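Incident review: delayed structure delivery

Summary: a single-chain prediction request sat in the queue longer than the usual turnaround. Root cause was a stuck worker, restarted by the on-call engineer. No data loss occurred. The affected request and its eventual output are reproduced below so the record is complete for anyone auditing the incident later.

Affected input:
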Amino acid sequence: MRRHRLLLVAGLLLAACCGAAPSSLAADAPPVAPVRNVVDEYWGQKIEDPYRYMENLKDPAVQSWIKGQADYTTSLIGHLPERDRVLARIQELEAGRPYRIFDIDRRPDGRLFYQKIASDEDLPRLFTRVSLDGEEKLLVDPSTMKPAGGGHYSLGFYAPSPDGKRVLYGLSPSGSEQDVLHVLDIASGKALADTIDRMEAGYTNPQWLPDGSGFYYSRRRSLPPDAPETEGYKKTFASLHRLGTNADSDPLVFAMDLWPVVKMSDVDFPSIVLTAGSSYAIGKIKHGDANPLTLYAAKLPANGDLTKREGMESPWKMICDAADSVEDFAVHGDDIYLLTARGAPRFKVVRTRLASPAFASAETVVPPSEAVVSGLAVAKDGLYVQFRDGGASRVTRLAFEAGAGLEPVALPDQYPSGTIANADPEVEGVLVQTAAWTRAGKTYAYDPAKKAFADTRLNPIGKFDALPGFESVEVMVPGHDGVKIPLSIVFKTGLKLDGSNPTLLTGYGAYGLSRNVQYIPTMIAWLERGGVYAVAHVRGGGEYGEEWHKAGQKLTKPNTWKDFISCAEYLIAKGYTSPARLAGQGGSAGGILIGRAVTERPDLFAAGLFDVGCLDALRMETTMNGVPNIPEFGTVKKEDEFRGLLEMSAYHHVKDGVKYPAVMLSHGANDPRVEPWMSAKMCARMQAASASGRPVLFRVDYHAGHGIGSTKLQFQQSTADKFVFMLWQMGVIKPLP
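Output delivered after worker restart:
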């Protein structure tokens, strides 16, 4: 499984407190948004919305207001003397590693495919090499292509054919995630005529037929320009494409109302999954952004074609339904391993036969325990299972032989965390990516015969990837209701706990996703100034399994920001920082966390960073991506869930005359996940309401989206702007006169 449609934004930035921004610092003051109040009634309660008109982003007046806000922010940040110096340091830190390789695909013949970004490059490129030590060959370079409207292209996905002769890849412009599929012939370096737009590759990449003659893929409908926005992700479908044919004539294979035995709604996302060495196809149904999957199995014909023909009986047999709480799976031959929370809130793994799948009688192969089972992958030699303890991950192996037990896979170099980076059912062993808070990890190959790791040298340690003088601690913070909240704290060795340290506290808390151990080289620019970086593992995430997730979802969502507040109070009480030196950050679904933390406890923070945030929860389901997110957050069409949405909606909790901290809202104009008007409305409301005199800024990137597909320079500039904004508000730096 891949990302959720409200991405966990692992943004980083810092905090502050100081005087208001004098208007003389910028050429003009930010434009004032007129109030045009709209009153809605939900379940007998009237709700005011003073900036509803901003939801029409095509309105020239709205565009002009946003442009004025963006220009004001750019001018204001440009008057901060440290900005260029901080940006230069961030770029130096990232340039310390010669290159970074990720998204690795290993083939049985030793060939590798991967994405790579060098220290002097702005975008990842797609490469292949014949072996681990072989010479690499460039396949796709998005930086050589430019969209007609300006900006850049980025790689959304890739999938090599079984014989390694061709590769599918998706390109999208300027962070829009609107991928168009292309097919490359590797030997000649030429693109085939086959192209497919409206790709829906967010949950499953295209899947090649075993003979490489075509592939299965998922696609969105073609809609008229005046179609309601909420129709955008409805009735997606899976088709089979044969190379050289017209994609618009591709037959449906797995879709709503196609097979009577297959139950599917209009908000479901269907896809086909094929696994090398298995004679079965998996029909996968993702129910919006809900975690539990519905899975079906079908015997794969010799030609791999599962297209429905007249008089044909359904080949599909149900493996599991949503009620079975299966969130991940892996196929080995004619067996399927299922990661399920049913009867196991921290998950377990069960196995059933694809010829006659029966979840109810499936054999438990990895029983539940105190640790969270967080992932699984099949290699030629066994099933590799990932466990998580808080934010740290570890890997174990289960051989396929009868009676085999779980074997721990000891991580090299005493790294506290390691995740499966690649496994292939036709390749022995796995690749593991190690991680630590204070130093970069490496990509290791695990040899099950030797029970040992070898450094692949795919990711060398750079100049700034293992700097001495930094450390991290893990603590458990009592929450508002007595529940202990994990908090990771990273700082410079010898830090004085006198309350003076600039501190960035970040969190997320949605979809059961965890904030795992991660080294962020650009964070050194914060830590070396005496700053503290802290990660709150709040409820709504998955650090302690499905119960932890459910404890911060819908009606229990307040736990998410209350946990964050408890962590902020802990950092203050222990002397790490003070309210004048504390900033909070949240992005995407984490916009709920930071938005409600700031509106509930404005006294606790000097600054807030709201990145591509979900800030108007009551209006979320009116957007294209809001419909898939109803399972996670709720719907206004149910009274209890409306109450929950109102409680988590930061926009509706802004009150006039309150002394709010300084705030920077950041958004990409091409965001397909959270509409930019979310940040626009929140900016207008806070500017009108705040009595503190502190700035409320709207940073807009017109060639970015939700953060996915942004260039390295875009990330660096955004991080630098936020760092200096927080340092300014903390009184650490002062603006130019």
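Verification: Residues 1-5, 7-27 have pLDDT under 50 and may be disordered.
Action items: add queue-age alerting; document worker restart procedure.
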